Amino acid sequence: MGIESASEYIRHSLLLTMLIAGPMLLVGLVVGIIISIIQAVTQIQEQTLTFVPKICAMLVAAIFLMPWIERRLLDYAAALFSGAGLP
Fold first, then answer.
1. Which of 9, 26, 24, 10 is nearest to 68 (CA)?
2. Structural domains counted in the chain
3. Cβ contact 87:80 at 8 Å
4. How far apart are CA 76 and CA 15, in angstroms?
5. Global pTM value
6. Range of the domain at 45
7. Mean pLDDT of 61-78
8. Which of 5, 6, 54, 68 qualifies as a FRET site for 82, CA 20 to 30 Å off?
9. Cβ distance 57 to 28 under 8 Å?
């Protein structure tokens, strides 16, 4: 394995990681912004108030997206182990 193919595998792995983590992070971002707006409107400045809704929303998103994540990971692993090249 040359440097070019190793760097290609690393690049595809990082892209797959960002693709898988992106939707859950986006859900956490949206929930965090909504909670921050609610805190600004009601003038409640409790720092721990944002963590529980964000964690719950990201957990629900992870459960909802699990079949999609599984399919992406299985396709990637099958391509790696078959030696047919990267998807």
1. 24
2. 1
3. no
4. 11
5. 0.76
6. 3-82
7. 93
8. 68
9. yes
- Average of per-residue pLDDT across 37-64: 88
Q: Are 9 and 86 in contact (CB under 8 A)?
A: yes
Q: Does residue 87 fall inside a structural domain? A: no
CA angle 42, 43, 46 (to 5 degrees): 110
Instruction: With a cut of 80, say whether residue 83 has pLDDT above it.
Output: no
Q: Whose CA is closest to 22, among 76, 72, 78?
A: 72
pLDDT of residue 87: 61
Could you tell me the two tokens for 41?
Answer: 């409107």
Nearest of 37, 31, 20 to residue 58 by alpha carbon? 31
CA 28 – CA 52 distance, rounded (Å): 11
Q: Are 61 and 20 in contact (CB under 8 A)?
A: no
- Phi first, then psi: give them for residue 35, nearest 5 degrees: -65, -40
